[in-house]
Amino acid sequence: SENLPDKDPSMFHKRYLKWMKDLGEGHFGKVTLYLYDPANDRTGEPVAVKALKQEDGNVESWMKEIEILKSLYHSNIVKYKGCCTELGGQVVQLIMEYLPKGSLKDYLPKRKLSMPQCLMFAQQICEGMEYLHSKRYVHRDLAARNVLVDSDNLVKIGDFGLTKYIPEGEIYYRVREHGDSPVFWYAIECLKENKFSFSSDVWSFGVTLYEILTRCDPRKNPPMEMMEEPQGQMTVMVLIKLLERNRRLPCPKDCPPEVKMLMEQCWAADPRQRPTFRSLIEKFEGIPRTSPH
Ligand SMILES: COc1ccc(-c2cccc3nc(Nc4ccc(N5CCN(C)CC5)cc4)nn23)cc1
């Protein structure tokens, strides 16, 4: 019958995965490029494989991450392809489509995109995030490093390592500790009270939009720009004080006024004042030439 285990396209056998190169370290996970080559003649397909990093990693949240990606179907979200079990089903690896152009951090500095192209990418990130929020998931780690480039006209959100479900009727997801957190992408209420919400994702989108507009220039990256003295030691407390004094990332010079306004609304101190991804999509649609034909 067609449903024999090895006819299940979402079952990948470890023995046919040929290591190619490391792609990056996400949260509690490492992503690697493999060639899945069952015919053993190098005619196989490249796949991105995410594995739990530490042996003592939290297996329960790892299985949850796999379930979340498996349930998402959207053109601006990286495709789940399947799983690969190891050690008799103990360790599970997540198999995804491979996007050869890497993340925005790899792509933007090389490709000097026009403003309309940058805004088209920003709008696509909003489309993916609106879909994620419609399923009541909060991403909690939206940043240029986690947005992958499929082509000059398509980007996809590529890592869901910190994504959490917000139950109906609740607004926040509270974390116990920060761990190695991307504090410069965190909304002020996340830094002060560990409160994550759909609105805190919108703040992180604002920082991601800033990264797009600066073409991920390492000299202008958020940590550098938020420092007062470049060599200064930025602590979470110093960052909170700066944000409370309404210090924000500087808007790049070639940024259209309506984009500057939209970005600053994402960084409103009061989460309720921030736009939703639905309203951000409408704002981008209203800007002439955001989707070059
Ligand atoms: C946070 O780290 C990652 C790394 C990879 C992924 C991921 C998930 C699902 C699919 C997928 N496709 C690619 N492609 C890719 C291609 C090239 C690179 N390089 C990174 C290092 N550069 C020096 C060269 C390009 C990285 C990722 N990465 N990727 C997600 C998060």
How do the strands and helices of this protein lay out in sequence?
Blueprint: E1 17-26, E2 29-36, E3 45-52, H1 59-70, E4 80-86, E5 91-97, H2 104-111, H3 115-134, E6 137-138, E7 147-151, E8 154-157, E9 164-165, E10 173-174, H4 188-193, E11 195-196, H5 198-213, H6 222-226, H7 236-244, H8 257-266, H9 277-286
Antiparallel strand pairs: 1-2, 2-3, 3-5, 4-5, 6-9, 7-8, 10-11
Helix pairs in contact: 3-5, 3-9, 5-8
The structure holds the ligand COc1ccc(-c2cccc3nc(Nc4ccc(N5CCN(C)CC5)cc4)nn23)cc1.
The site of ligand 1K3 has 18 residues, from strand 1.
Describe the structure.
With 293 residues, the protein is of the alpha+beta class. It has 9 helices and 11 strands. The chain has helices at residues 59-70, 104-111, 115-134, 188-193, 198-213, 222-226, 236-244, 257-266, 277-286, and strands spanning 17-26, 29-36, 45-52, 80-86, 91-97, 137-138, 147-151, 154-157, 164-165, 173-174, 195-196. Strands 1-2-3-5-4 form a 5-stranded antiparallel beta sheet, with helices on one face. A two-stranded antiparallel ribbon has the order 6-9. β2 (29-36) and β3 form a beta hairpin. The radius of gyration is 20 Å and the shape is globular. The N and C termini lie far apart (47 Å). The model has no long low-confidence stretch (mean pLDDT 91). The structure holds the ligand COc1ccc(-c2cccc3nc(Nc4ccc(N5CCN(C)CC5)cc4)nn23)cc1. Ligand 1K3 is lined by residues 23-24, 26, 31, 48, 78, 96, 98-100, 102-103, 106, 145-146, 148, 158-159.
